[in-house]
């Protein structure tokens, strides 16, 4: 099985934000975004989740994993990397 997230992007389609690309789990991610909309989440919240899923998909793709294969240890690495990136941006005077 090939796991990829190289060409993954967030797109706006008919007022909704969705993921497009070659990520193995893109349909699952988009189903989650549809679920959020059905539950009445604001468009800004759905957009934020879409970008979180974009980063998550890229991380899993870099690790050669699917959503089902993502373990707690691997997820801790993702959040650790995200924290390092945010800290670096803040040190450089950028927005968090």
Structural write-up:
By secondary structure, the chain is mainly alpha-helical. The chain has one domain. Helix content is 56%, strand content 10%. The chain has a two-stranded antiparallel sheet. A hairpin with a 2-residue loop joins strand 1 (9-13) and strand 2. The model has no long low-confidence stretch (mean pLDDT 78).
Categorize the overall geometry: globular
Given helix and strand content, the structural type is mainly alpha
> Rg to the nearest angstrom?
14 Å
Count of separate DSSP helical elements: 3
Provide mean pLDDT, rounded: 78
The total beta strand count reads 2
- Beta-strand residue fraction: 5-15%
Largest sheet: 2 strands, antiparallel
- Pick out the low-confidence regions: none
Percent range of helical residues: 55-70%
**What sequence of helices (H) and strands (E) makes up the elements?**
EEHHH
Q: Which strand order spans the largest sheet, edge to edge or round the barrel?
A: 1-2
Distance between the termini: 36 Å
- The domain tally reads 1
What's the SSE blueprint?
Elements: E1 9-13, E2 16-20, H1 26-38, H2 43-63, H3 72-91
Antiparallel strand pairs: 1-2
List keywords for this structure.
about 100 residues; mainly alpha; two-stranded antiparallel sheet; 3 helices; 2 strands; globular
Q: Could you provide a short overview of the structure?
A:
It is built from 3 helices and 2 strands.
């Amino acid at each position: 099985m090939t796991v990829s997230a190289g060409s993954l992007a967030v797109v706006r389609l008919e007022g909704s934000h969705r993921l497009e690309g070659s990520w193995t789990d893109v349909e699952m991610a988009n189903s989650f975004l549809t679920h959020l909309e059905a539950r009445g989440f604001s468009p800004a919240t759905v957009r934020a989740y879409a970008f979180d899923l974009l980063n998550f998909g890229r991380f899993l793709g870099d690790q050669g994993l699917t959503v089902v294969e993502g373990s707690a240890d691997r997820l801790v690495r993702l959040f650790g990397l995200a924290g390092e990136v945010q800290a670096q941006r803040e040190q450089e005077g950028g927005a968090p």
